[in-house]
Design brief:
Blueprint (H helix, E strand, L loop, with lengths): L51 E2 L17 H14 L2 E4 L11 E10 L2 E14 L9 H5 L9 E6 L13 E15 L5 H5 L7 H34 L2 E2 L4 H22 L3 H8 L5 H29 L5 H13 L4 H8 L3 H20 L4
Antiparallel strand pairs: 1-7, 2-6, 3-4, 3-6, 5-6
């Protein structure tokens, strides 16, 4: 009798342009279901000087990126590689089992000497220490041997057990250990690191690990620096007026997506907006969606404005590569539109342009 598993709604998200993904709700994409026009640039044909007043975006002050790799980080990375190389070893009959072993068991549960519904199973795989069963079950198997039969565990169901009929009831489980496996972690030595790549010894491998950690941390720090610079430029940008057709597009998209995800979760729209948006009325929701839309539009206009002023663009090869990367992750034109409110071409456009604008701002900042 295992404990119940609470399933959480999960949704993979596309790589999205930093603060362009302002985050309406956890695990729910904020962007819409329909496209706004056929151009890759939602704002083509607009004189953006009439819509936004942009402050100084060159020479923004930013802290120097400094990265240091700690010895503990190298040790953790080594342990991760060792864990990944760990294999399950089948235990011989008669071997005592311990926490961490995975057992294949048959068990029969009886209350007052009678079997009860869902209290028995055959060929069940159980990792000792996983907490999958009621208290005392897994602990009671520790020290018993592979192949051992008629192991009796006298236990009691918790008072708050999921099934009210079983709450607080005394139960006796009779268990047979059919087989078992034990994770076998490799020994850390020169022979092991040679299996991971073209390394001669542990020293060479550890230097490579340190180099990779440094590279990753530096990339993250530089991305954070870019985002901070962008945030300063964004804060110093004032909106004179919003292009209402684009704002309306996003509001309608947000609204349609609420129905889309509520349907996927099988819950009522009203319950959905209360759970994820924290509002109880459509009026409150509409105001919130308008705020989200205007925030997003401001950011997009700023990207397009700086790109236009500074002659920032991307190549066809870069666009094709990003599209291929997106499709490799399993996304289609349809799912991209559901996730982002843009066609594939429109999404690729704003992503590439945003990253290049960030690069420009960083290159022209005062570090």
């Amino acid at each position: 009798m295992g404990k119940s598993n609470n399933k959480k709604f999960k949704k993979a998200a596309l790589r999205r342009a930093g603060v362009l993904a302002i985050g309406i709700i956890t695990a729910i994409s904020m962007l819409g279901l329909t496209a706004c026009g056929s151009d890759v640039n939602f704002y083509s044909g607009l004189d953006l000087d009439e819509y936004i007043k942009v402050g100084e975006y060159k020479g923004i002050e930013a802290d120097k990126v400094e990265v240091k790799v700690e010895k503990s980080e190298i040790a953790d990375a080594i342990l991760e590689d060792m864990d990944a190389a760990t294999k399950d070893k089948k235990l011989k009959k008669g071997t005592e089992v311990k926490e961490g072993d995975t057992l294949n068991i048959d068990y029969v549960g009886r209350i007052d000497g009678k079997e009860f519904e869902e209290g028995s199973a055959e060929g069940y795989d159980l990792k000792l220490g996983s907490g999958s069963f009621i208290d005392g079950f897994e602990e009671g198997l520790v020290g018993h041997k592979v192949g051992e039969e008629n192991i009796e565990l006298a236990l009691a169901f918790p008072l708050n057990y999921q099934s009210e009929e079983l709450q607080g009831k005394d139960v006796v489980f009779t268990v047979k250990i059919n087989s078992a496996t034990r994770p076998e972690k490799p020994e850390y030595n020169d022979a092991f690191v040679k299996t991971l790549g073209d390394y001669k010894n542990t020293e060479e491998y550890e230097k490579a690990v340190e180099k990779q950690i440094y590279k990753t941390k530096k990339e993250e720090a530089e991305q954070n620096q870019k985002t901070e610079i962008w945030s300063q430029v964004l804060a110093d940008t004032k909106v004179k007026q919003y292009p209402e057709d684009v704002v309306t597009h996003y509001i309608e998209s947000f609204d349609k997506q609420i129905d889309y995800y509520a349907d996927q979760q099988g819950i009522d729209r009203k319950d959905f907006i209360a759970k994820y948006y924290g509002v109880s009325t459509e009026k409150e929701l509409k105001k919130q969606l308008k705020d989200y839309a205007q925030t997003l539009v401001k950011q997009e206009m700023l990207v397009e404005y700086i790109a236009e002023k500074e002659g920032i663009s991307y190549t066809d090869d870069e666009a094709k590569k990003l599209q291929t990367d997106i499709e490799t992750q399993g996304y289609t034109d349809e799912t991209v539109e559901i996730e982002t409110g843009r066609t594939m071409d429109q999404y690729v456009h704003i992503e590439l342009l945003y990253e290049k604008v960030l690069d420009f701002l960083q290159e022209n900042a005062k570090i």
